[in-house]
Structures are given as structure tokens and as C-alpha cells.
Amino acid sequence: xxxxxxxxxxxxxxxxxxxxxxxxxxxxxxxxxxxxxxxxxxxxxxxxxxxxxxxxxxxxxxxxxxxxxxxxxxxxxxxxxxxxxxxxxxxxxxxxxxxxxxxxxxxxxxxxxxxxxxxxxxxxxxxxxxxxxxxxxxxxxxxxxxxxxxxxxxxxxxxxxxxxxxxxxxxxxxxxxxxxxxxxxxxxxxxxxxxxxxxxxxxxxxxxxxx
Length: 211
Hints:
Elements: H1 3-18, H2 31-43, H3 45-48, H4 57-68, H5 72-81, H6 88-91, H7 95-112, H8 125-142, E1 149-154, E2 160-164, E3 169-174, H9 176-183, E4 193-195, H10 198-205
Parallel strand pairs: 1-3
Antiparallel strand pairs: 1-2, 3-4
Helix pairs in contact: 1-5, 1-7, 2-4, 2-5, 8-9
């Protein structure tokens, strides 16, 4: 089983366990909203663009609200089943793994880390390596809106990635999964060490990061 499929299975099991009204790390969203979002991005090609394109966002929100209004178990089951074969995810070989490994990993953690008593997962070494490669490759995109310079340092290794070339810079150190979550704007729930001027660290913690 690919890691994209494994994360899909894990998040849908957790969504089933928690029900529709549990909190998530996505501002203003309960688990029912997150499940609806996952259905829209995979099954509603007409509305998916509004996730990233601002002027299309009102239509996307309307479609997502319609999906959320459906029975919760039905929506979660559509997430579990994955995208239909006629969608890009079904038609383009490798697209599911290329895109959904990170998408489902981050949203799985959005649900996990919004609950009391969470702890970071111990990940297989190859998944940990994959997360580092993705965050290092996309670092300049993820941190493009950072008001300060940023260097990412993978804990326990000599690996580093320049995310934003500016002075002063903050060095963010942690395991790959924590750096990925930090880069996707989950700063308050990523277990990392931050080294830099206190005011620069504060600005970075409050910045809007991610895609």
C-alpha cells in the first residue's frame, strides 16, 4: 500500500471514530468540514480550483457547504474510496502518490493534533525521508510570505534547506514531519526548535505559511 493510501485509510478511520463535530487545526473547521473539503478537491473538479484561486473561492465554499450538509458517514466513505477513475487522480499514473501523500499526511495531523494528548508519530524511515525531500524542495514556496529569513535544519542529520534568503534569519530545527507541518502553517502544533532574534521568531510564528 502506498503512503498516500495509508494516510487516507488512517484519516478516514479517525474521522469515523471522532464524528462530525470534533475540532481540527484548520481554522473554523470541524471534522465534517475537513471531510467535505477532501471530497470537493477530489470529486468536484468544477469547484476544486477555488481552494487555491481566490476569486473562485466563494463558489468552492458553497459547494463544500452542500457536501457538508450530506450525511457525515457518506462523505467520509467517499474520502475512503478515493477519487473516481475519470478524475485526474484516476487518469494520471502516479498523481495520487505525488499529491496526496502530503495532503493526507498534513490533514491527518490536523485532526490528530487538535485532540487532547496527541504525540508525534514514529514514521518509517522512507516516509520520513520523503517528507524531508518534499519540504526541502518546496521550502521557498512555503515560506515566500515569511517576513524574516528562514533556514530549515533536519534534526539528527546534517541536512539543511534555505527557505527564505533574508536577514535576520530564523533557524527552524526538527524532524521532517515537524518541519513539514510548520511549513504548512501549523506553527503552534509543530514541535521544532527556533533559533534567532526573539522578535524575528515571533514574526515567523505569526506568519501565514504554506501553499
